[in-house]
Amino acid sequence: MDELDSKSVVVGINGSRAAANAAKWAVDEARSRQLPLRLVYVISGRGAEPGSEPASEWEVEHGETALSDAESAVRGERKPVEVETAILAGDPAQVLINESQDAALVCVGTARRGWAADGLLGPTAAGLVAHARCPVAVIRSNPDGSPTQLGVIAVVLNDDPDNDEVVRRAMEEGRLRHATVRQIDRRLHSWVRRYPDVPVQTVAAGTGTKLGESHGTAIELAVVGGSDAEQMTGIATPNCHPIIGYPDCSVLVVRE
Hints:
This protein is α/β, with parallel strands linked by helices. The protein contains 7 helices and 9 strands; from the N terminus they run E-H-E-H-E-H-E-H-E-E-H-E-H-E-H-E. Strand 8, helix 7 (226-232) and strand 9 (250-254) form a beta-alpha-beta unit. The longest helix is centred in the N-terminal third of the chain and has 19 residues, at 57-75. The chain is elongated. It starts with 7 loop residues before the first strand and ends with a strand.
């Protein structure tokens, strides 16, 4: 769903401190989108199908308490945000997947899982990651229930069709949370894997070979895209482009 049509930022609440931490993390997400923060408690397997037993009074009270505690945690952030609460019945993962159809983001909390844990995600988070109709945030807490400290935000640069949007979202998170974004560039390595018989050199932009270098090391052919080709007629100063700023090499312009 387009965020412009989204109704809320949804957080799954189950009474745990990890879920409350996820709700606190989601406050900035809701505020940045000018959307309500919707806290959803799911009574598992009750009242969801015709003929199933209705939720007990105790289960409803437990849900109300969990939502009240989560809302108090949100209010403790002292950041104005509209809060909605809901108690629903059914399979927790499926209920939150249904919620994702109208959401800008769905968040769930989880405790950190060690290498020996059976999978990196619990069943609800795993179901959401696989089937949600909007972005999903899985917010980890420390084993003692305390929130983890914000550190570096990492994102991989690769050749996937949606990578531009992935990187854009990482940069938005860095801006929102005043955090450093670490970009891990795998694009070169992906091409290396596809062409294992081709030697590859890695150089920083602006350090290509220049006029006068010996044969075999100087650039012989520059392969560029359409946007670079548009610059070619205007380049007057050497080294102002990582490749085509160097004279005396042939150029192959690639156009789709």
